[in-house]
Amino acid sequence: MTTQERTPSHGEGPLPGDDDRATGAIRIGQPIRDRRDILGKLGWIAVWLIFLAPPVRDLLSDRHSDWADAAGWLGLAVFVGTYLLLILRNMVSPRSWWLVGGILVTLAALALTLSLTLGPPWLVLFVYVSVGCGSTLPLRLAYWAIPATAAAMVATGVHLGGKPSMDLIVPALLSGSALTGIRQLVRTTAELRRARATVAHLAANEERLRLARDLHDLLGHSLSLITLKSELAGRMLAADHPDQAARHAAAVEQVSRQALVDVREAVTGYRRPRLAAELAGAQVALTAAGVTAQLPAEPDLTGVPEEQESALAWALREAVTNVVRHSGARRCTVEVLRRETLDGPMLQLVVQDDGSGGSGTPGNGLTGLTERLAKAGGHLEAGRAPQRGFRLVARVPVTAAATARNQEGDPVGSGT
Q1: Using CA atoms, how far apart are residues 282 and 225, in angstroms rounded to an integer?
Q2: CB-CB contact of 190 with 30 (8 Å)
Q3: Hey, which residues does 382 pair with through a beta bridge?
Q4: Which position has the higher pLDDT, 413 or 295?
Q5: How many other C-beta atoms are found inside a 10 Å radius of the C-beta of residue 215?
Q6: Fewest CB atoms within 10 A around its CB: which of 37, 101, 121, 389?
């Protein structure tokens, strides 16, 4: 007598849990896919048809005339067919409320007619009517229809000269009520499956975004440096300085090999650049581009979590790449400082150049950098400098204890 609700609607795609087929489990909260699912759920429904034993015994008892027995068998067959139509309609296709209501009215009419004409053994049919109400009607309506069905069974029994026993009243009430609970359980299970699919989809999207950000930052920096070194090597060859050209070519090879390593690490998710290494790389890239670099000494990162340091390192890489590729700057200043802000202690990276100031629209690099800093609890400010050039400020939170220890000595970093 149990049933499953159809979920989800057509077009939503498969839901997780397809491994249930391999284990032979009933796929709770999922739509029927094939004949095997229909047969499996029909098997569970057929178990509860054992409650039809009293009407069957009544027909086999020779208590009625041949015409009455024939009418009884026909009525019972129509009742069972209508009941299965209601349950299967509820499982395999979207519900049409007018059709569901018509089927329920038909079941109730058959139960009443067969009980009045063939006697008390047929009162058990009202239990199936109660189950149909609990499995198909809206919950608020089902809470009224189930007691009404039980009351109709009691009234019919009294009219027949007796009173239905608790063996019928309790199943009529509990079976219908249990079906309303099962429907809510199925609905919750379906929602959990959809939520799990959504979480998996979001995780995949997040991984794609991470990979896109890492590859953009890694390859943008490395390819810019390779381009600069290649141009310098070409100039040295044209000027008949093969030794200097060879050095630049060797630098191109070294940067290319490191880029391959970085890409592999990014793809596998282990790429976490360090701020000190990025400062050294920034010095090389800016010098190769003919930009006068003013960078701090190796900063003290005591108390700075690895994720926050990595976010600042990415910010420095992106900022230096933009200086080399787009700004046309002749001078670039980098500062790493600790600041007390309204949001608490922050480690701040400032990169400022004297170039053209860039365009007013942020590109993919700055957009990805903003997302990366936000994940680390920080934020990004980027735009034209007050006098000339472009200024990028990235901040990430640090522990208050580390900031207090640092304030006892010198600042973390300043221009040198």
Answers
A1: 10
A2: yes
A3: 392
A4: 295
A5: 16
A6: 101
Can you tell me the mean pLDDT for 293-302? 82
Alpha helices in 239-357 (DSSP H): 242-268, 275-288, 306-322
Pairing of the two strands 379-384 and 344-353: unpaired
393: pLDDT confidence band, cut at 50, 70 and 90? very high
Residue 405: per-residue pLDDT:
44
* Tens digits of residue pLDDT in 196-231: 878 877 777 776 777 777 777 667 767 777 777 787
Local confidence band at 333 (pLDDT 50, 70, 90 cut-offs): very high
The mean pLDDT of 335-343, rounded to a whole number, is 85
* Nearest Cα residue to 348 out of 362, 334, 361: 334
Please tell me whether residue 305 adopts helix, strand or coil conformation.
coil
Q: How far is CA 141 from CA 55, 95, 136, 138, 306, in A?
A: 29, 16, 10, 5, 57
Relative to beta strand 292-294, strand 331-341 is: parallel
* Segments in 137-165 forming alpha helices (H): 139-159
Cα gap 371→201, rounded to integer Å: 19
Residue whose C-alpha is closest to residue 126's, from 103, 102, 153: 153
CA distance 31 to 7: 5
| Strands lying side by side in the sheet with 292-294 | 292-294, 331-341, 344-353, 390-397, 379-384
